[in-house]
Amino acid sequence: MKPVWVVDDDRSIRWVFEKALTREGIPFKTFALAEDAMEALQSGAPQVLVSDIRMPGTSGLELLNNIKRRHPELPVIVMTAYSDLESAVSAFQGGAFEYLPKPFDVDQAVDLIRRAVGESLREEQAEEALTDAPEILGQAPSMQEVFRAIGRLAHSTATVLITGESGSGKELVARALHRHSPRAAKPFIAINTAAMPKDLLESELFGHERGAFTGAQAMRRGRFEQAETGTLFLDEIGDMPADLQTRLLRVLSDGTFYRVGGHQPIRANVRVIAATNQEIETRVREGLFREDLYHRLNVIRLRLPSLRERREDIPLLARHFLSRSARELTTETKRLSEAAMAYLAAQDFPGNVRQLENVCHWLTVMAPTQMIEVGDLPPELRQAGVAMPESDWVEALSREAERVLARGDSAIMDGLTRKFERTLISRALDRSGGRRIEAANLLGIGRNTITRKIAELGLDEKNLSPNEGRADSRG
User: Which residue, 270, 248, 133, 131, is CA-closest to 189?
Assistant: First the structure.
């Protein structure tokens, strides 16, 4: 672990950190001036930087901007007096990890540094993983099975049928199968068979002769010819029109086809990999897909798991997509807080990996700070109604308490308690249809208590059912 750097012109502050970090066994260096720290950067970066904002010469904000340009992933904690709160906001906008208000509690400062060190080490590990990232990411057992299957097929040219929900990465698997096959040096051609009209799809697949139809002013080679000696990937094969299924069956059966308007058979030396997000067996039973073609395609079957079946891969994928989006947009890589990461991992993601990738791209553009919190996630995800794990809402409560304390508020217990009670009772009344006795039972409190709380908290009477008064009087 690299040392933590503390930059502050106040000797007593540096002394406090020196004693506290020594006691905790955390390596450190201290600097009286930002210029000294920037000079030391020439020899290497720290694990975490802790810096005051107001210092003689170069300010802490200038130091923050300088170090973020060179080391965008480095966590920076800024120290500030209450009067510098606007500067702290500027620091967050500049990518600060957290701010530490002065005067601070030493144990709180050490805890914050430990959290920043942990984040820094995780980022380093993630960066190492991404540097050597394979073509498909996944640590879940279901994905490991897919990887094993790709490995077993490395020396094969057998036809493969890939099944899985839309957005689960079927084309990535097809490309991996090609890349690890004897045909790797030959073309890989992909076509979505559900994305174009039947007449156009026929020409796309098999090509056409000059004059074959209106507008065919020249001969055109189709995808089968383009993929000669290589691999042809037919995506969404379950939606292929019936007459084109017949033509595809002929190619797979005897290895020949005709261009549209052509009369000379053309030999096809192509490995076919097909994919579908549909229940292909159901399509066969319903007469919508030829059974003989199904058996021709279903030589080797690979099923890709949905993202909700491999939730443990969401953090790895999210970090990868955030890093890639940052590279594409030439900006700093943003990070997900533990609460935001847990919230993402709890989502079902009907659009699977593609949806997660889009979310990460949205966050790279739209999230206001480098550290992404639950509130920064796209509205459609926050409205999905997935409950946060207990640790997450407790952490959210902790952040709210820190926020109001940093603002200088006092006697905050009553205000936060009223918000807590109001939320619980409101939700219980919603659940019970406004029936107080049932709501009280759900909360584990007495009827008189909930009645008193409703009055004290000023809860709207619309939460009560029309018959509630009679129920209470009988009770």
Answer: 270
The Cα–Cα gap between 292 and 302 comes to: 19
Top-confidence range, 13-17, 57-61, 65-69: 13-17
Residue 168: pLDDT above 60? Answer: yes
- Domains 156-304 and 412-474 agree in fold: no
For residue range 233-263, list pLDDT tens digits in order. 999 999 898 889 999 999 999 999 999 999 9
Amino acid at 313: D
Q: What is the CATH number of domain 309-388?
A: 1.10.8.60
Q: How far apart are CA 311 and CA 332, in angstroms?
A: 26
Instruction: Tell me what pLDDT residue 135 has.
Output: 60
- Tokens coding 325: 């989006």
Correct CATH for 156-304 of 3.30.70.260, 1.10.10.10, 3.40.50.300, 3.30.1540.20: 3.40.50.300
Domain ranges of the chain: 4-129, 156-304, 309-388, 412-474
Q: What angle do CA 158, 149, 269 make, to 5 degrees?
A: 20
| Confidence label for 90 from pLDDT (cuts 50, 70 and 90) | low
The third-level CATH classification (topology) of the domain covering 412-474 is: Arc Repressor Mutant, subunit A (1.10.10)
Average pLDDT over residues 2-17: 92
For residues 342 and 395, is the Cβ–Cβ distance under 8 A? no
Fold of 4-129: Rossmann fold (3.40.50)
Q: What are the start-end ranges of the H helices in 153-189?
A: 170-179
Q: pTM here?
A: 0.57
Sign of the C-alpha dihedral, residues 278, 284, 288, 290? positive
- On whether the CB atoms of residues 86 and 106 are closer than 8 A, the answer is no
Token pair 């049928």 is at which residue?
A: 161
User: What pairs with residue 52 in β-bridges?
Assistant: 79
Mean pLDDT of 16-30: 92
Contact between 249 and 238 under an 8 Å Cβ cutoff? The reply is no
Mean pLDDT of the chain: 83
